[in-house]
Specification:
ten-stranded mixed β-sheet; 250 residues; Rossmann fold; 20% helix
Length: 250
């Protein structure tokens, strides 16, 4: 796995123009994943550096501890991936201000749980329909606030995945769709809570340079392993699920 530790400031300013820091990192052509607090990483960048931030921060609903059995069907065995108390509360207002500073546009999952922290009422919410019946202990859809001025959209895709490494793991197909409809190849993407690394796989194939942060060492290493494994294949694959050739309006 191409995880390195750097302790010197690179002469070229680090990957994608950022200052190099003394942290563990996975660096690939289109992925720069960092084991660090996202506030530390965002502070390194000038205003408007990223074209789009796609983030999935804690919602403040305690899904991480899994005490309520969320994230599985009734009767299913409890998940084996690592749990924790990281979902006790959503990020503070300071996080959202910094996110808006460093990125031109934002897609923020779970904002319906902390709508008062969004900058304005958006017409362009994204609904992820998980294609589940009501016989589940968790929400059948997830909602993302966006800074785009277009109409609301829905994406349908089951969240079921073999070998899950994170309790709130989103699918690569979901990120494929987000990039195809709200970004263009070559645009710079930020993810402040990398989790399972699905976004890294999608950015690799869509050719969008990604800077991603993860503060938990176990999740970080598992995500890096997954990104390495899932991108070590032929580069002929490219998602083609754009809503329109012109892409979204801002």
């Amino acid at each position: 796995m191409s995880v390195e530790t750097t302790s010197k400031t690179a002469s070229n300013g680090g990957a994608h123009g950022a200052p190099a820091v003394g942290l563990q990192r996975l660096v690939r052509e289109f992925v720069d994943a960092r084991l660090d607090d996202c506030m530390n990483v965002m502070a390194q960048y000038p205003s408007g550096h990223f074209d789009l931030a796609i983030v999935d921060p804690p919602y403040g609903i305690n899904v991480g501890d899994n005490k309520s059995g969320m994230g599985r069907r009734k009767g299913d065995a409890k998940a084996k991936y690592k749990m924790g108390d990281w979902d006790s509360e959503p990020p503070a207002d300071e996080y959202f201000r910094e996110l808006r500073r460093v990125s031109k546009n934002q897609i923020i999952w779970g904002a319906n749980h902390y709508i008062e922290r969004m900058a304005w009422n958006s017409p362009c919410w994204i609904i992820w329909d998980k294609l589940y019946s009501n016989d589940v202990s968790f929400a059948a859809v997830e909602m993302a606030w966006t800074s785009f001025r277009t109409t609301a959209k829905k994406f349908e895709c089951t969240p079921l995945q073999a070998g899950r490494i994170h309790p709130t793991q989103k699918t690569v197909k979901l990120y494929d769709w987000l990039l195809a409809n709200y970004a263009k190849p070559g645009q710079r993407i930020l993810d402040t809570h990398m989790g399972s690394g699905s976004i890294g796989i999608a950015c690799h194939y869509y050719r969008c340079p990604l800077v991603a942060c993860e503060i938990d060492p176990d999740y970080f290493r598992a995500a890096c392993d997954r990104i390495e494994r899932e991108t070590a294949q032929a580069d002929w694959y490219l998602p083609n699920v754009r809503m329109s050739e012109g892409g979204p309006e801002t």
